[in-house]
Specification:
Elements (H helix, E strand, L loop, with lengths): L15 E4 L3 E5 L4 E6 L4 E5 L10 E6 L5 E6 L4 E6 L4 E5 L10 E6 L5 E6 L3 E6 L4 E5 L13 E3 L5 E6 L3 E6 L4 E5 L10 E6 L5 E6 L4 E6 L4 E5 L10 E6 L5 E6 L4 E6 L4 E5 L10 E6 L5 E6 L4 E6 L4 E5 L10 E6 L7 E5 L2 E5 L4 E2 L3 E8 L4 E21 L2 E16 L7 E9 L5 E10 L2
Parallel strand pairs: 32-37
Antiparallel strand pairs: 1-30, 2-3, 2-29, 3-4, 5-6, 6-7, 7-8, 9-10, 10-11, 11-12, 13-14, 14-15, 15-16, 17-18, 18-19, 19-20, 21-22, 22-23, 23-24, 25-26, 26-27, 27-28, 30-31, 33-34, 34-35, 34-36, 36-37
Length: 448
């Protein structure tokens, strides 16, 4: 987890109008956090960190409600607070009670009220997310931490797991803020465990072991290691971070040393092969993030200043995130912002500012249907809304612009060629005379 040199990079922030970007990438060598536009898979700016400078930003994680991100800065012992709406650092976490010492990661309980922060110097802190304040130090008297790498919290919010450099994994009772014991690894001992990736149903976890090139399999309920992933078809080599698809069927593991990403079948606990990277070879891959719809995975390549894009269906690299201004520098971690917002961004030379998406909301109704032709069919959604005065509107499907219209009274828009049985989120945004968003209506609908 500590393989990176610190290099100075001038931060570029430029002017463009874009959809709400929903990926953030930490640049450990560049001391910056890049902003990726989801629609174009292009970096469109960097977070303004004037009020809480990044310094070897290790990881960035986003609160469950998608409003805030926290960045662990290892070299200046701070945790920066990013306001997602403005893409701006608003300050740093108040650590008066217990100063940070090599902070490495922030993880949240499912309700977003509490976070746990690992300090590689040997401690784990408890943070009140609302007040941005450290409120306690996890009691590890029973089993002291040893250079804790990262922390993961179970989907039910009851337990946290922390990987330690002394080949142990600590178990934290979230309610009592105390270590209860070490994970039982008698069957297959750990070797510098990094982080546990937990399946969405909370039953199974995969723990990467950096030193012996294995991935341990944990029964979360019994808190016991039941074996290791069979890696014959996709060997691990200094495995780092794993990502699991939302349906819990597949895991992707980044291998730092041999520049590969292993594919693991969760049900069989076996690697089925390596991601096809012919179109964009990996270079020191470190982390994997997967979109909520389970179609795409992203892998940060710390060795070549890029982020790979994987088509999950074909398990193939389709390209890399476009970085026209060269902001990526030692990309280590990528976070996907939950798609709970339809805000719009305007990036200026002096920093990143946000135009509010709504000053008033309106209702959007919809219906879905299917037109059958001789050789094919068309699944569609028809939206309708009412506007008392002449106005222009932009229509977005799953944060992608799909059409525009203008008029007064009852307006309609039909979105064609959709996937049957798929659920879509629509946003209809009213524009001012200066083309700024002034109000919006949203609708979630399942296509016929």
């Amino acid at each position: 987890m500590r393989h990176f040199l610190k290099i100075t990079l001038f931060t570029l922030v430029f002017k463009c109008v874009s959809l709400f970007p929903n990926y953030l990438v930490t640049n450990t060598a560049g001391n910056s956090v890049s902003i990726v536009d989801a629609e174009t898979q292009t970096i469109i700016g960097t977070v303004d960190d004037t009020l809480g400078p990044f310094n070897f930003p290790f990881t960035v994680t986003v609160t469950p409600d998608g409003t805030t991100a926290f960045v662990a800065n290892r070299d200046n012992n701070t945790v920066s607070i990013i306001d997602i709406a403005t893409k701006t650092v608003t300050g740093v976490v108040d650590d008066t009670l217990a100063p940070f010492n090599l902070p490495s990661m922030v993880a949240y309980t499912p309700d977003g009220a509490t976070a746990f922060v690992t300090n590689e110097a040997g401690s784990v802190y408890v943070m009140d997310v609302a007040t941005r304040t450290i409120t306690a130090v996890v009691n590890d008297a029973l089993c002291p931490f040893s250079n804790p790498n990262a922390v993961t919290i179970t989907p039910d919010g009851a337990t946290a797991f922390v990987g330690n450099d002394n080949d142990t994994v600590s178990i934290i009772n979230v309610a009592t803020r105390s270590v209860t014991r070490l994970l039982n690894d008698e069957l297959v001992p750990f070797s510098q465990p990094i982080i546990a990736a937990i399946t969405p149903d909370g039953t199974t976890a995969f723990i990467t072991n950096e030193n012996n090139n294995t991935v341990s399999v944990m029964n979360v309920g019994t808190q016991t290691i039941t074996g290791t992933v069979n890696s014959e078809l996709g060997p691990f080599d200094e495995p780092q971070i794993a990502g699991i698809t939302p349906d819990g069927s597949t895991a992707f593991v980044a291998n730092l040393r041999n520049n590969t990403v292993s594919v693991v079948d969760v049900a069989t606990r076996a690697s089925t092969g390596l991601v096809n990277s012919d179109l964009g070879p990996f270079n020191q891959p470190t982390s994997v993030a997967i979109t909520a719809d389970g179609t795409t995975a992203f892998v940060t390549n710390c060795g070549c200043k890029s982020v790979s894009i994987i088509d999950i269906a074909t398990q193939t690299v389709t390209g890399v995130i476009s970085d026209p201004f060269g902001t990526l520098n030692g990309p280590f971690w990528i976070a996907i912002i939950p798609s709970t917002s339809t805000d719009f961004s305007l990036f200026e030379k002096t920093g990143v500012t946000m135009i509010s998406s709504t000053s008033a909301n309106f209702s959007v109704s919809g219906k879905t249907g299917k037109d059958d032709f001789l050789t094919e069919s068309n699944v569609f959604v028809k939206l309708s809304w009412n506007t008392p005065s002449e106005a222009s509107f932009q229509i977005y499907r799953d944060s992608k612009l799909v059409g525009t219209t203008q008029g007064q009274g009852v307006l309609e828009f039909t979105d064609n060629n959709l996937k049957s049985k798929k659920t879509y989120t629509y946003s209809v945004v009213a524009l001012s005379s200066g083309d700024s968003p002034i109000s919006e209506g949203t609708l979630v609908i399942k296509a016929r």
